[in-house]
């Protein structure tokens, strides 16, 4: 199966979020989600699935504010497991831990579980169906939200011992609340080089490179014109995009600048903000 999270694809590599209580979140992300704690300071912790590649960084600002409702920002980040049996195994783990899920869906291209961390940051954990099973109508991939066959997944996962996130786990995609879709689409397609692969009416669109079902989801479900949250509130700090080469990254920077978007360079690292204030680290 083609891999959608390595060159030449442009993909989401890792995510940084704010939390209210660092120790509480470390306990959740290691014990419940199954991350390995890679490094920790007084106000920050970095997590990995394989013991060396960061996938999630959590930060507790001094003046942290609770998650703000009806704003732009993180809807969920999505951890992609390597196999269906891994997804079944984590369901067994969640049942054993008494974890309350927010949802579970079969999206045709994938099977997914939804939950939130102690601060309300959204998390999806999913597995992909083989790409050759996805149904494309021209440039659009067919996706839906139908009932997940949990019983069958439990059977598939019953012989796979849960021992934390598999080392092959990657950040599969990110889904964002945005304030509108027209300028947002221009930013991500004309600026960053993504292609729209699915539209949900006038409320959401899904974008990718190299014909993945989506690397980024964008929706206006918190309201058209929703404001950006405070920088010190629970939620997204940034997510990173990996380009296949330095030349492609710099070309994206040039396109964003020509479209009127500001790109900052901090300690040699490029950062941009989409029209809704969602911050992106360009790698």
Taking all Cα atoms into account, the compactness measure Rg is 18 Å
**How do the SSEs run, as a string of H and E?**
EHEEEEHEEEEEEHEHEEEEHEEE
Approximate shape: globular
Low-confidence stretches: none
Q: Name the beta content range.
A: 35-45%
Query: If you average the pLDDT, what whole number results?
Result: 97
Percentage of helical residues?
Answer: 10-25%
Q: How many strands? A: 19
CATH superfamily: 2,3-Dihydroxybiphenyl 1,2-Dioxygenase, domain 1
Roughly how many Å apart are the termini?
25 Å
Number of helices: 5
The domain tally reads 1
Main sheet summary: 9 strands, mixed
Outline the fold blueprint:
Layout: E1 11-18, H1 22-32, E2 36-40, E3 44-48, E4 54-59, E5 73-80, H2 84-97, E6 103-106, E7 110-116, E8 122-128, E9 136-137, E10 140-141, E11 146-147, H3 150-157, E12 170-177, H4 182-191, E13 195-200, E14 204-208, E15 216-219, E16 235-242, H5 246-258, E17 263-266, E18 269-273, E19 279-282
């Amino acid at each position: 199966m083609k891999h959608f999270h390595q060159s030449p694809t442009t993909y989401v590599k890792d995510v940084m979020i704010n939390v209210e209580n660092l120790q509480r979140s470390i306990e959740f992300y290691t014990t419940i989600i199954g991350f390995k704690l890679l490094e920790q300071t007084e106000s920050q912790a970095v997590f990995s699935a394989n013991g060396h590649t960061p996938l999630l960084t959590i930060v507790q600002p001094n003046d942290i504010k609770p998650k703000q409702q009806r704003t732009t920002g993180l809807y969920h980040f999505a951890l992609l497991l390597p196999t269906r049996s891994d997804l079944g195994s984590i369901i067994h783990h969640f049942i054993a831990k008494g974890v309350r899920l927010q949802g579970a869906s079969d999206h045709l291209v994938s099977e997914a579980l939804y939950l939130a961390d102690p601060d309300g940051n959204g998390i999806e954990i999913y597995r992909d169906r083989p790409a050759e099973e996805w149904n494309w109508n021209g440039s659009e991939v067919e996706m839906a939200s139908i009932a997940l066959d949990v019983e069958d997944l439990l059977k598939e996962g019953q012989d796979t011992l849960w021992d934390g996130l598999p080392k092959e786990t990657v950040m599969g995609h990110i889904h964002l609340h945005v304030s509108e879709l027209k300028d947002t689409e221009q930013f991500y397609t004309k600026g960053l080089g993504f292609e729209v692969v699915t539209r949900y009416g006038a409320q959401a669109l899904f974008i990718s490179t190299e014909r993945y079902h989506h690397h980024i989801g964008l929706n206006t479900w918190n309201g058209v014109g929703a404001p950006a949250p405070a920088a010190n509130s629970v939620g997204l700090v940034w997510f990173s995009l990996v380009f296949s080469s330095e030349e492609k990254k710099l070309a994206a920077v040039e396109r964003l600048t020509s479209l009127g978007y500001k790109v900052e360079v901090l300690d040699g690292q490029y950062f941009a903000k989409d029209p809704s204030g969602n911050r992106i680290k360009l790698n």
